[in-house]
Amino acid sequence: MELLYKIFVDPFVQMGGAPDLLVQTLWEGFVSGVLYSLIALGFVLIFKASGVFNFAQGIMVVFAALTLVGLYQKGVPAFVALGLTILVMLALAVAVERLVLKPLVNQPDIILFMATFGLTYLLIGLGQLLFGGEPKVMIAQELFLPKGSIDFPMLGGFVSLQKIDIAAAVIASAMVAGLAVFFQRTRIGRALRAVADSHKAALSVGISLEQIWVIVWFASGIVALTTGIMWGARSQVEFSLQIIALKALPVLILGGFTSIPGAIVGGIIIGVGEKLGEFYWGPLLGNGIESWLAYVIALVFLLFRPQGLFGEKIIERV
Amino acid sequence: MKADVKPKPVVGGEVATGDVLLAVDNVSLSFGGVRAIRGVSFDIRKGEIRAIIGPNGAGKTSMLNVINGFYHPQEGTITYKGVRRRDMRPYIAASQGIARTFQNVALFKGMTTLDNIMTGRTLKMRRGLLAHALHYGPARWEETRHREAVEQIIDFLEIAHIRRTPVGRLPYGLQKRVELGRALAMEPELLLLDEPMAGMNLEEKQDMCRFILTTKDTFNTTIALIEHDMGVVMDLSDRVVVLDYGRKIADGTPAEVQGNQDVIDAYLGVAR
Q1: Which of A171, A276, B19, B41 has its CA 20 to 30 A from that of A128?
Q2: If chain A, 318 residues long, is cut into consecutive pieces of 10 residues, what is the mean pLDDT of each piece?
């Protein structure tokens, strides 16, 4: 009885008792949710166009951030380093298309998936070789990202918003909106969806698979760079950051592997759910539930809606 | 090959009606130990309907795949519009005006009829990526202009009522029609149809025949088609090439081919 009270009543009493804390928790959940969305978006782009689950997405986040900071430490001015990093991500996209995707075209998906494992370790090695393995501080100020926090009184207490979190939310939203427009409303978007459905039909109307692949890998490289900067600014740039990419998995299950809006909504649900769970229900289970709650939510979803919230329903004729 | 009326070949550019649009010369294709096509030569003339027939496994679809560059033959050449090549590439084929449909319908199932047919305009859209992303003036105007062309095709194929339906939900006969529409949107010079009537009932077949004939007459499109329905083949085609076990066994008008003993043997089997 007491347990039931603690699960179903007490958390809500707490929420009602300290609404400012609730708002704070929701905000923090929202911000990490937006960042999860960004990572998931990187996955979705590549999955839509090539049917490949890109295991290397996490390390791409780290690699991009590392390249940026590493170049800066080697004496390159911040914005030049940013430009160079963008070029590096473009080079990476071209290299992946030439050296990985093209030779493996028409191979089963699992082969391509394994190839992205190889890519992961290659990028880990390359990153360490070029810039060293020690944690680095993101050059947030040099890139004119705001620092500090804004506190404002609210609901009988006060809520504190980190400026970098606000910037992250704004930039991520702009990026998501931009990509959504690009991929929904342009001929490239149509070509992308076409490639996702049938390679041979796409080829027969003159869509270039190579071009599409480079575009999506570059787009997800840029998404990775943005995520890397934001996440790096909130903590540090280190190789363990790639673990957060695994959080994209429940996000994708929730949102559907092929849906851009799904990645966004899924990310926010997971981010907010995680923080609320940790804060209000965590003490019941000895805390630390943040690390696994997302997967449980995803599991429940798989039972009831395997195609995700927004996933395209699989229509199969038999 | 018969030595009589040999149409003059053309070098590059425009091909006049009756001249050779495409010629495959001594093409051989094998997959490992399987020899799918063995030294086949034939030509397709501008403005004709050329049927490719033969029993199952004769190499008909492989031949279409060679023509539009999905397969690269080990031997032989392909001459299209006067340009001789060792093999085709899908992109070159598409940009040079070769469109096709597939035996088992290869549509973009999640997309609507309209979007599927719009993909046929891909190579005709020339505005840059950025312009499209921003959706500004000329790019938007371009989209509208291509929409008009596509709407005409939709009207022609009588599929206006399903233009907003995701094609995965459509019955098979209509999917085949949408696929034809996508190929027509490319405004092809050479249209390759792989069993356009397969799995259709009589009425649907008649509709499809009508569309094919109208396409040929209105747009002067050259058509190569694979078909198993002999009635359709004899009615539609100007000339027929017959393949069996990867070899060419006959080539000529429908009447000539019909009377050919090798063809009859290939279809009915023969005691050896």
Answers
A1: A171
A2: 78 79 87 87 82 86 91 88 93 91 79 90 91 82 78 76 86 83 76 82 87 88 90 82 80 80 86 87 76 84 76 54
Interface residue ranges in chain A relative to chain B, Cβ cutoff 8 Å: 178, 181-182, 185-188, 190-191, 193-194, 196-198, 200-208, 215, 312, 315, 317
**Alpha helices, H only, B86-237:** 90-95, 113-119, 129-134, 137-156, 172-185, 202-219, 230-236
SS3 state of residue B84:
strand
3-state SS string for chain A: CHHHHHHHCHHHHHHHHCHHHHHHHHHHHHHHHHHHHHHHHHHHHHHHHHCCCCCCHHHHHHHHHHHHHHHHHCCCCHHHHHHHHHHHHHHHHHHHHHHHHCCCCCCCHHHHHHHHHHHHHHHHHHHHHHHCCCCECCCCCCCCCCCCEEEEEECCEEEEEEHHHHHHHHHHHHHHHHHHHHHHHCHHHHHHHHHHHCHHHHHHCCCCHHHHHHHHHHHHHHHHHHHHHHHHHHCCECHHHHHHHHCHHHHHHHHCCCCHHHHHHHHHHHHHHHHHHHHHHHHHHCCCCHHHHHHHHHHHHHHHCCCCCCCCCCCCCC
Closest CA to A231 of A250, A216, A218, A248: A248
Band (pLDDT 50/70/90 cuts) for residue B1 is very low
pLDDT in tens, A102-129: 888 767 778 888 999 999 999 999 988 9
CB contact at 8 A, A207 and A194: yes
The H or E element spanning position B271 is: none
- What is the value of pTM for the model shown? 0.77
Interface contact flag, B94 A190, Cβ < 8 Å: no
Beta carbons of A188 and B133 less than 8 Å apart: yes
Predicted ipTM of the assembly = 0.82
